[in-house]
Amino acid sequence: MYAQMVKTEADRVKTLAEMDECERVFQERVDRGVKIEPKDWMPDGYRKTLIRQISQHAHSEIVGQLPEGNWISRAPTLQRKVILLAKVQDEAGHGLYLYGAAETLGVSRDELTAQLLSGRAKYSSIFNYPTLSWADMGAIGWLVDGAAIMNQVPLQRCSYGPYARAMIKVCKEESFHQRQGFDIMMSLCRGSAAQKAMAQDALDRWWAPSLMMFGPPDEHSVHSAQSKAWKIKINGNDELRHKFVDQTVPQAKLLGLEIPDPDLRWNEARGSYDIGQIDWEEFFQVVGGNGPCNRERLAARNKAHEDGAWFRDGLMAHADKTKARQQSQGEAA
Ligand code: BYC
Fold this sequence. Notes:
It contains 13 helices and two strands. It is an all-alpha fold and 333 residues long. The protein has a two-stranded antiparallel ribbon. The longest helix has 29 residues. The radius of gyration is 22 Å and the shape is globular. Bound molecules: benzoyl coenzyme A (BYC). Benzoyl coenzyme A (BYC) binds next to α2, α6 and α9.
């Protein structure tokens, strides 16, 4: 089973008539667009669903540093190095805002980190693919951050205040990230034939995994119906995937690159592109822990956590000393 199956109390979305008084008042607030804040009453399933989604999102930002971090020392110019370093730092920051938002729901960051390190928690499938060439930095910024923006802009309007507010800053930064990726692709596509081929190769490898970022097709999305009713999710997985394709195809044309999908066709009636079959078996394998880099990513996170133990211990010792000093000063006064 690829889903954690967080129990949202019911197998289908309850109607207002089926809800108890607290649930009804809560749902009506959500329906009116009132933001839910940490101290407000909320159904247990709403809290659990938010913790699941926000923590998976936070883990994705943290693990998402690894494929790009791999290229910081190999960026072709000092300017590219500085830009990539700043982008990877931004992702650490996004992880922090998101862990902070999750903590407002009563779960500790230590607990969430332990879930990630043990392999119990999910993070985005996309970060289980290897970064083989410099062009992959372009493709990640253009496609992966592009997909992230498509998914996260609507989340600025989600019902949970701390998550919605975190998304505002995240989205601003993500749009820079996407532009830097497109800029790398543009430079490569205006360069030599070999550079352009490198850009095409990166697009060929990252296209399908980027489409998978939006999650399984709606008919297999176990959480969408309830999450949409609670406005934890604003759009369906397929709707956002198609919007992403419609936005990205003209950008590929501008670059002079070919989208690796022989079935891609403009559908006049729908005013949107039709796409070929996505290999969902590959997606389920990656989400189930069997992608090309799942083990490597978890090993890298575990090593980083172990290597950072001395620093965390130092911070705790400093905090304890400061507290003890303040207490003794308080007693002396
Ligand atoms: N990868 O019922 P569904 C970034 C899981 S960070 C892995 O549709 P839901 C960036 C899903 O969790 C990008 N797992 O689920 C960072 C569920 O499993 P569980 C991350 C996936 O939650 C650094 C099961 O499949 N963005 O962009 O309603 C550098 C059933 O799916 C994936 C976010 O996290 C996947 N792709 O919808 C650059 C955004 N898709 O939990 C860029 C916030 C699905 O039952 N998250 N699953 O075990 C969301 O919007 C939603 O959680 C999703 C999935 C649309 C991703």
